[in-house]
Amino acid sequence: MRIGYACQTIGIPGTDFKSCILRNADETNLRSIISHNLESLERILDYNIFSGIRLFRITSDLIPFGSSPANKLEWWKLYEEKFDLLGDKIRQSNMRVSLHPGQYTVLNSPSEDVVKRAIEDLEYHTKILKALGMDKKNKLVLHIGGAYNDRQEAIQRFINNFKNLGEHLKDRLVLENDDRIFRIEEVLNIGEKVGAPVIFDNLHNKINPSSGNYDEIKWINLCQATWKQADGPQKIHYSDQHPNKKPGSHSDTIDGEIFMDFCQRLNREDIDIMLEVKDKNLSAIKCCNIVATKPSVNLLEREWSRYKYLVLEKSPKDYNHIRQLLKVKEEYNAVEFYKYLDHAMEQEIITGNGLNAALHVWGYFKECADEKEKIAFGKRCSNYKAGKLSLNGLKKYLWQLSCKYQEEYLLNSYYFSEVM
């Protein structure tokens, strides 16, 4: 089983992606942005490999205006060496990648122009996978589209347009149920007719369920039959509903206990699970650790090293609970560890706790900081206590010191996620 996340990272420096508006899409700017984005992708891949994450969705924004005439660059040739390097990293780590064209890539539109643009967008996404040297196990995820006041006609239009695609596109496409229109039962029927694998999305199915009494495990097993050996292991999407937002909104983090129960009911290792969640890689590592086949307290200790000061500033009580939990080296209490962690993340920061955590972080610089830096930090602490400086303002200074003095422990800490 591989567990992964989509597009961006939380708390990992140098992994942002850039874009530009149309009027700035000249050759010089496009080259600069593409170079930057490919470097960011490499850092994400390196992070994934180090963290044991073997499933990742690449952002569609990797190449600005990738499917538009505005970008006339033959980027797959200009950056061939870089793409080769990235592809080697993906293959050597046994990582599986995918892309998910957006809501405007609609293959069943009544408009021929919209369908034409959709095919151009699919060509762009396929070109990324080809440039990386990825085989057919690395896919493009696509929704069926709109109903356009005639559901059956819209389905038939999708089938006809799909069948007219080039084989290089058909080989990449997998179909997914959505949360508004096309339910998993319909998508399965379409997938069987066009010979495309089907992805089951659990949250979409909860909001837009098919008729009958099938539970999500039954639907997942039915979808499995659409995945041929050449397509790779079956892939599904997993997410939790955000408790305070409209139906279909992804939660801030994955509930570890619910996820473990889901995996126990699933009772399969021959499947890949793409998480769709706000905290991206953080939930991916959480879920990997919860279902680890070789559990070790070292996995949780590595996590703790990143979260430590973030938890301290939010909830000293949870901080102490986790410290006590990790003292028992013979036990692997991943679910309990993440319960404390998630509870801490939900707390509002009070001034005293924020200052206490900042002083702990300052401890790394007490010996190496010069007099000017010591005075500057003291002044910022006083201003923060007096309400004249935000906590992020205080943390930005500590981040600058972390970069200056190359404190590796702090550079890898999620404490600085919002200020780096």
List the helices and strands and how they pair.
Blueprint: E1 2-6, H1 27-51, E2 55-57, H2 75-78, H3 80-92, E3 96-98, H4 112-131, E4 140-143, H5 151-163, H6 167-170, E5 173-176, H7 184-194, E6 198-201, H8 202-207, H9 216-224, E7 234-238, H10 256-266, E8 271-275, H11 281-290, H12 297-314, H13 316-327, H14 334-345, H15 351-362, H16 371-385, H17 391-404, H18 408-411
Written account of the structure:
The protein is an alpha/beta fold and 420 residues long. The protein folds into two domains: 2-290, TIM Barrel; 297-416, no CATH class. It is built from 18 helices and eight strands. The protein has helices spanning 27-51, 75-78, 80-92, 112-131, 151-163, 167-170, 184-194, 202-207, 216-224, 256-266, 281-290, 297-314, 316-327, 334-345, 351-362, 371-385, 391-404, 408-411; strands at 2-6, 55-57, 96-98, 140-143, 173-176, 198-201, 234-238, 271-275. The protein has an eight-stranded parallel sheet with strand order 3-2-1-8-7-6-5-4. Helix 12 (297-314) packs antiparallel against helix 13 (316-327), helix 12 (297-314) packs parallel to helix 14 and helix 15 (351-362) runs antiparallel to helix 16. The longest helix has 25 residues, at 27-51. The radius of gyration is 24 Å and the shape is globular. The protein starts with a strand and ends in a 9-residue tail after the last helix. The model has no long low-confidence stretch (mean pLDDT 95).
